From TrEMBL:
The gene is slc2a13b. Belongs to the major facilitator superfamily. Sugar transporter (TC 2.A.1.1) family. This is Proton myo-inositol cotransporter. GO terms for molecular function: myo-inositol:proton symporter activity. It catalyses: myo-inositol(out) + H(+)(out) = myo-inositol(in) + H(+)(in). It comes from the Eukaryota. Keywords: Cell membrane, Glycoprotein, Membrane, Phosphoprotein, Transmembrane, Transmembrane helix, Transport. One of its GO terms (cellular component) is apical plasma membrane. The chain crosses the membrane at residues 44-61, 81-101, 113-131, 137-160, 172-190, 202-223, 324-347, 359-378, 465-485, 532-554. The keyword Glycoprotein applies. PANTHER family: PROTON MYO-INOSITOL COTRANSPORTER (PTHR48020:SF12). It is found in: Cell membrane. NCBIfam families: SP.
Length: 623
């Protein structure tokens, strides 16, 4: 439609008319989609998405690499369990705090500066980790990396969402999670490769993150700020230039106007701190509840426990060689990556809501399969047949009569011989404090020895039901990775109005990191009290709760312009899933928009305009 020579009000009216949809209510959201897809996508937006998603890569790499590095570090630096826990959780804790601070920094200095800051912090952290002389500096390095991860995790999805055209936004933001899981996959390969280097191997593992960090920093020196943030700050000319550069065309009036109008209309949500404004604004408050809920349920469905525990699951399934287990764990990370790719493909095809719902149902079922596998294994747990003399008397390991309680005690492991599928000559022995790969003393002191037929099992029991656990693991990754992995990040990047976007994302990312910390710190204790199957049944139950939450509260955001999404939260939370709700939500703001724009001219014009539009759209719902 030619809008040249029209006033801004007239152009908005034409736009609103197109949006309400002369083609009927079912085309309401496709009206926007089609508009977006008509523009040939300029490749520059892919360059932007790639360089920003390097932040996701670093998030994945730095959280993933630590497990392999720790195997070497604990020997070389003689780390106690407390120090090992500190080195792993300090990064996650620092990420939780800096994600929150990132919201403030994003609002004040913009997305680009925050991405530059995050990559600078990653670089410093990586250098510190690769040259650190002692465990204190190591801890400082891990904390520094955590600060970078927190800022990157909340800024990158927002930046990508703000520069993308609506029809590609879901795919490009999901690309960031693909980079996260890609980072975890590469980290596991690096872990495997350097695990042979007993001296200083961990320095390479931890230090290699400097490469993508520097690449991102250099790239962003030349890449532009988000046009939406520029407009919000009143830098109109710059915003127009950037938008036309990203779209590769000077015909960006329509998009530019839409952003500008919505900024003018939404204002800043009132005065006072942004969080208070969010909480006192019902639609945005609802969006925040949905965003934080999604992030919480992502972590409560136990992804990081399952990933972390995958090496043990594989050992249960019969992989005895430690090195082999490391490589197979890389296979787990690879599977997570491949199925995230499926998510990138599906997100614009089936939409966010259906993808997330399908994913969480599959996640709950596969967690139940995992739990059943663990339950059957526990029930067929082999008895302890011998209590060898020489066992340290005050060791708790002497009291156990079965493998199950023995393996649940972090101080003990199960030493046994094998006859086909059953074990005999079994004992429960203290684990070597330096390496869980062997007993502290006795015949399993050298770990498992195929030649003498003696095996050492730490954290698991030999069982014939291990295939069920393995099946559960594969099902879990296949269902979690395409939906529950990426969608919380993708959806959060689009559900808030501009004035609340950075704070909303900061809060939900903070919830993600806090729940991540909570689950990883409590897993072993939960497993000790509820056993493994209890823990996985618990995660499965939490995922079911997550399903109910998502089913009732999550609206579809696919294809909508960022400026129109707030309206999806205009009604009570639990109506979101009801059929037709999205049409009702979608049209209402157009009425409000028209009323505001034409109310000052002639109230009746607006009303009759809407009436005509509604008649054209065979509008059924009561607005
Ligand atoms: O979306 C990501 C992804 O699924 C990762 O695999 C996981 O480690 C993160 O915690 C999560 O936020």
């Amino acid at each position: 439609m030619d809008t040249k020579g029209k006033t801004e009000d007239e152009r908005s009216l034409i736009r609103a008319s197109a949006d309400v949809g002369v083609n009927g209510p079912d085309s309401a959201d496709s009206a926007v989609t089609v508009k977006g897809s008509k523009d040939a996508t300029h490749s520059f937006v892919y360059v932007l998405a790639f360089f920003s998603a390097l932040g996701g890569f670093l998030f994945g790499y730095d959280t993933g690499v630590v497990s392999g590095a720790m195997l070497l570090l604990k020997r070389e630096m003689n780390l106690s369990t407390l120090w090992q826990e500190l080195l792993v959780s300090s990064t996650v804790g620092a990420a939780a705090l800096s994600a929150l601070a990132g919201g403030y920094l994003n609002g004040l200095y913009g997305r680009r500066v925050c991405i530059l800051l995050a990559s600078f912090i990653f670089t410093i952290g990586g250098i510190l980790l690769s040259v650190c002389p002692d465990k204190e500096v190591l801890l400082l390095g891990r904390l520094t990396i955590g600060l970078g991860i927190g800022i990157a995790s909340m800024t990158v999805p927002v930046y990508i969402a703000e520069v993308s055209p609506p029809h590609l936004r879901g795919q490009l933001v999901t690309l960031n999670t693909l980079f996260i899981t890609g980072g975890q996959f590469i980290a596991s390969i690096v872990d495997g490769a350097f695990s042979y280097l007993h001296h200083d191997g961990w320095r390479y593992m931890l230090g290699l993150s400097v490469v993508p960090a520097v690449l991102q920093f250099l790239g962003f020196l030349f890449l532009p700020e988000s046009p939406r943030w520029l407009l919000q700050k009143g830098l109109t000319q710059k915003a127009w230039q950037v938008l036309s550069k990203i779209r590769g065309t000077a015909h960006v009036d329509e998009e530019y106007d839409a952003i500008k109008t919505s900024i003018e209309q939404e204002g800043s949500g009132g005065g006072g701190p942004v969080l208070c404004r969010i909480l006192s604004n019902p639609p945005v408050r609802r969006a925040l509840i949905v965003g934080c809920g999604l992030q919480m349920f992502q972590q409560l469905s136990g992804i990081n426990t399952v990933m972390y525990y995958s090496a043990t699951i594989l050992q249960m399934a019969g992989v005895r060689d430690d090195k082999m287990a490391i490589w197979l764990a890389a296979g787990t990370a690879g599977t997570n990556f491949v199925f995230t790719l499926l998510g990138v493909w599906l997100v614009e095809r089936v939409g966010r809501r259906r993808l997330t719902l399908g994913s969480i149902v599959g996640t709950a079922i596969s967690l139940a399969v995992l739990a059943v596998g663990f339950l059957l294994s526990a029930q067929s747990s082999p008895p302890v047949s011998s209590h060898p003399i020489g066992q340290v008397l005050n060791s708790s390991c002497t009291q156990y009569r079965f493998c199950e309680p023995c393996m649940l005690d972090p101080e003990c492991g199960f030493c046994y011989r094998e006859n086909g599928t059953s074990s005999f000559d079994t004992s429960c022995v203290s684990v070597n404090p330096v390496s869980t790969a062997e007993a502290a003393w006795g015949r399993c002191n050298n770990g498992s020895q195929e030649t003498s037929g003696t095996f050492w099992a730490y954290n698991y029991c030999p069982t014939r039901y291990s295939w069920i656990v393995l099946l559960g693991l594969l099902l879990y990754l296949a269902s979690f990775a395409p939906g529950m992995g990426p969608m919380p990040w993708t959806i959060n990047s689009e559900i808030y109005p501009l004035w609340a976007r950075s704070t909303g994302n900061a809060c939900s990312a903070g919830v993600n990191w806090t729940c991540n910390l909570l689950v990883s710190l409590t897993f072993l204790h939960v497993a000790e009290y509820l056993t493994y199957y209890g823990a996985f049944f618990l995660y499965s139950g939490l995922s079911l709760l997550g399903f109910l939450f998502i089913f009732s509260c999550l609206p579809e955001t696919k294809g909508q312009r960022l400026e129109d999404i707030e309206a999806l939260f205009a009604e009570r939370l639990c109506t979101c899933g009801s059929p037709g709700a999205s049409h009702r939500h979608y049209i209402r703001p157009q009425m409000e928009l028209a009323k505001t724009q034409y109310g000052s001219l002639e109230q009746n014009t607006a009303v009759s305009y809407i009436t005509v539009s509604m008649a054209n759209t065979h509008y059924r719902a009561t607005a």
